[in-house]
Amino acid sequence: MRMNARFSTTKLSAVALLLTFMLLVTACGSNSNAGSEPTDAAASPGATEAAAEQPAVEPITVVTSFYPLYYIASEIGGEHVAAFNLIPAGVEPHDWTPKSRDIDTASKAKLFLYHGAGLEGWVDSFLQGLDKNSGVVTKEMSEGISLIAATEEEHAEEEAHEHDHEHEEDGEHAHEEEGHSHGDNDPHTWVSPKSALKLAENVKNSLIETDAANQAVYEQNYETLKGKLEALDQQYTEKLSQVTNKNIVVSHQAFGYLARDYGLKQVSIMGLSPDAEPRAQDLLKIAKFVKENQVNYIFFEELVSDQLARTLAAEANVDTMVLNPLEGLTPEQEKAGDTYLTLMERNLQNLVQALQ
After folding, report:
1. What are the extents of the domains in the chain?
2. Which of 130, 168, 186, 289 is the most buried (most CB within 10 A)?
3. Residue 23's pLDDT is what?
């Protein structure tokens, strides 16, 4: 009897050790799978089967014409969108012309978003060049925004600038330069949070139309972004209503929508295109305006030369400061993780400081 008891005890111990070993092996196996569910879910057979039935997320490819649309599409699309921006970091959109590889990239996408309103002077020929069998959906995002008309003087400046380039450059390059004319309207809508809200709504609707299966996700992400843009709009409204000086002198006439929506007056050194060079009498006129209206800063932007802004600032004995038109990120901003929102917040800080 004692031997039987001793044998039973030994047998039970061996079984216990075997069970413990099997549990350890099972636990180690689940941790090695990076895509597995948490341990408590994996322990349930029903949860394991449900996880196995979940399809992997296959994002749709969305190509955008410039940075603000890329940011909005990425925010609203989330993991369901693989966004690709045509213009690389550090390149000024007015200086960029699409190549055949860019047309090929857009042709392979599910959705191509461009701003319109004359921003992309190349877009008509670009759309015509897309592969007719690709099925890519193309959408203009500025629809529904109340546009600011370009003045006759601005048209004359742009036409004169393009005419000069046609004589200076060869035929091919001159043809490319023609694509930078903005047409009848100021296209720089996105510098105002109020316009950005409409752009976001248009992007959301385009994503839903193209990928209706993920409508709920797009709606939810849009509401999140909408809340951030509305908060930004409120900050601009409150803080700019309190500044004493309403005049902003800028290097590039890109802030008309900002000025219109928040009660400011824009005076620009150059026209709607940052390539348009001002005349000597224009600089003297602006320098006089700066002195007579107690303007303390001349604003310049980071993707184009600040030489004219600094020359004018020296002539008027004032300082310079960055006001970002958000047409694109610099490589440094991209590396630092800056976004449309962070740069717009920085713009507001600089505006308040300059206009106090």
Report:
1. 60-229, 243-355
2. 186
3. 37
